[in-house]
Design brief:
By secondary structure, the chain is of the alpha+beta class. It contains 15 helices and eleven strands. 40% of the residues lie in helices and 13% in strands.
Length: 423
């Protein structure tokens, strides 16, 4: 095992950890088993202990040591893990900082995510969340999902190494649409991609109608999400910012930072509030965070993402957080056909089918959503129908949900009989 690559070692560590975890061994016997299984590879043993949460100090299950160079941004040129060169910051979020980097041995570009050490989280929570992200993403193999290659530590700070994807996140494009600086055409999107990447692109869809371009993105992403769901992984933060559009015009799903493992982490969502990007969050996540681990939240998030790309506006506009939460929970978004009468009615029906308030009324799986989007692209009938004014009125009357306690004071409580209908 000593000569195994980092990605092979990570996979082996997960396999060993899962086997030992299933045996529910006492601590002393567990440690003997780890030593016996990994005795010739100390790094493998350290990773197994980290996955099982038994690392004695300084790995992913422990609080990261504050690292001034990380928080101050002075990391360019630093080598971490003995082989990953940090080149420049390419993104930052609530959990971590993402760098463009290079694998020195293989001389290839990689993306490296490091945890922020100054977050006000419970002891050890940063490391556990990062490990969960790695375990979730490493289990998914699909061209539309970013691949994880390595997990480790640098001075007590966890890091994760992923595929480098040259592209622009669709959040930037959505922002351009909101300002009115760009038209909603395939040619405009191709020009935006080329300008952002600094070179010509040939995505293959520049001359297609924009609605078809967005529908194709949706179908590709829905199939990627279905692959993740098949591995027990729920993304929980599907939003334009977490979709990279590659130079070849293909969308790639990134950032499993708030992923919930539906098979392995049943209690994760009950330990805290809802996670995700608020304007794209499924309403049940706001009403009861324990529902956030279900695949239906990704179907809603993908529908909300398509809504934004098609209309040039978020389904629910930003504002004071409390009022935005209440609108998401109690209102329907503006009718897409009213915002743009030229949008194909079948595509509008599919988007609203993904964004139904009740999870049971949405597509039963991301695969069904993909198949309906593909039917639209092939000029075949779709399974959903756009409701008329009376239908929307009926839906509205079903989603005005009285609140029992002020927003922000914990999960929203609904008056009976609503809770039973969020299943």
């Amino acid at each position: 095992m000593g000569g195994a690559s980092s990605s092979d070692r990570l996979g082996t560590a997960y396999r060993i950890a899962e086997e030992l975890e299933a045996r529910e061994l006492p601590a002393a016997e567990l440690e003997r088993e780890i030593t016996q299984r990994c005795g010739d590879d100390p790094q493998l043993g350290a990773e197994v202990r980290a996955i099982l949460g038994t690392a004695p100090s300084g790995f992913l299950g422990r609080p990261p040591v504050p690292v001034p160079w990380l928080e101050q941004g002075g990391s360019a040129g630093r080598v971490i893990g003995e082989r990953y060169l940090l080149e420049e910051v390419i993104g930052a979020g609530s959990m971590g900082i993402v760098y463009r980097g290079r694998h020195k041995t293989l001389d290839r570009p990689v993306a490296i995510k490091l945890i922020r050490s100054s977050l006000a989280l419970a002891p050890g929570e940063e490391g556990r969340r990062m490990l969960k992200e790695a375990r979730a993403a490493a289990g998914v193999r699909h061209p539309g999902v970013v691949e994880v290659h390595d997990v480790g530590l640098e001075e007590g700070t966890p890091y994760m190494v992923m595929d480098w994807v040259e592209g622009l996140d669709l959040g930037r494009w959505a922002g351009e649409l909101e300002t009115g600086r760009r038209g909603r055409t395939g040619a405009d999107l191709a020009a935006f991609l080329a300008a952002g990447l600094g070179h010509d692109v040939d995505p293959g869809w520049a001359e297609r109608p924009y609605s078809e371009v967005v529908a194709r993105f949706g179908a590709q992403l829905a199939r990627a999400v279905h692959a993740a769901h098949a591995e027990g992984v729920v993304h929980r933060d599907l939003a334009p910012k977490n979709v990279l559009l590659r130079a070849d015009g293909q969308p790639v799903l990134v950032d499993f930072g708030v992923a919930a493992l539906t098979r392995q982490d049943e209690s994760a969502s009950t330990r805290g509030g809802a996670a995700g990007t608020l304007p794209y969050m499924a309403p049940e996540c706001l009403l009861d965070p324990s529902l956030a681990r279900r695949p239906a939240v990704d179907i809603y998030g993908l529908g909300a993402t398509l809504y934004h790309l098609l209309s040039g506006r978020m389904p629910f506009e930003q504002g004071p957080e409390g009022s935005l939460i209440q609108r998401i929970a109690t209102e329907l978004p503006p009718d897409l056909a009213g915002l743009d009468p030229n949008l194909p009615k079948d595509l509008v029906a599919v988007v609203f089918g993904a964004m139904e308030k009740r999870p049971a009324d949405r597509y039963a799986s991301a695969l069904e959503l993909a198949e309906d989007l593909e039917a639209f692209l092939d000029r075949r009938p779709v399974s959903r129908r756009r409701p008329g004014p009376l239908g929307r009125l009926g839906r509205w009357s079903c989603v005005v949900l009285p609140m029992r306690r002020p927003l922000g004071s914990g999960p929203l409580r609904l008056l009976p009989p609503w809770p039973a209908r969020w299943s």
